[in-house]
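Q: I'm a student working through a structural biology exercise. My instructor gave each of us a protein and asked us to get a predicted structure, then write a short paragraph describing it. Mine is thiazole synthase. I'm not confident about reading structure output yet, so if you can add a plain explanation after the tokens, that would really help. Here is the sequence I was given:
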Amino acid sequence: MHYRGLLRVKRRDSGTRIYEAASHPPADDSPAGAVRRAATLIDLVVRKYAPLPAASLTYLLRLLGYGAPHLTAQIQAALRLARELLDGHDLVKLEVLGDPHTLFPNMPETLKATKTLVDEGFKVMVYCTDDPIQCRMLEDMGAVAVMPLASLLGSGMGILNPWHLRRIIDPARVPVVVDAGVGTASDAAIAMELGCDAVLMNTAIAGARDPILMASAMKKGVEAGREAFLAGRMPKKLYSGAPSSPTEGLITAGPGSAK
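A: Happy to help. First, here is the predicted structure for thiazole synthase. I'll explain a few features afterward.
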């Protein structure tokens, strides 16, 4: 669903379409710095003081993907506690990883965890593969946003399969956010040109030679891509058909003309 103005996720408006994840430590981790970043961060981190080796909802749910199904009851209890600590805030991002090296999502466990979270009353934004069928399944389960990878997390390889993203975007009834693989501003622009509602990135900015300048470039790339999507690109043609320059007074070579 494409909104001309603010990005809307489950009746919540956001003033930006570019988000920076919190996996790399920020330069300013003071309370004031946290407040300044709050408008652009999407990951919701909940500190839990209990005998579980976790400091966030994201990590608790990753345990399911790493072969710890016995923790399911504890995770559900942690989610209930999280809602209390969050004072009613229920928008969370879900990651269930299947491989610690590629950080590729474990989709069977992602589907199970999505159902668990939705049943617990959370509004779930789901990190997932770029499989159109599984994205539709997540949407049907009640996910409020799907967040497919464009390429592997932290790889910077860009949009490897634009056709898959289009097949996710075109029928989607919830926002589609590219969650991984963006390496530079042109990647962000392409994602937005395809019709994505937003882009989430971290390493592309944190790993740049000049992170501040790259962040500025990313913002412009997202804005340009969004405007191009709304404007609608011209159709692609094998031949141009008609010239765009004036043809009056054009000298053409006829039969028998000197070469």
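A: Here are two points you could use in your paragraph. The radius of gyration is 22 Å. The beta strands are 7-9, 12-14, 18-20, 91-94, 123-128, 145-148, 177-178, 198-201. It's a good idea to check both against the output above yourself.
Q: Great, thank you!
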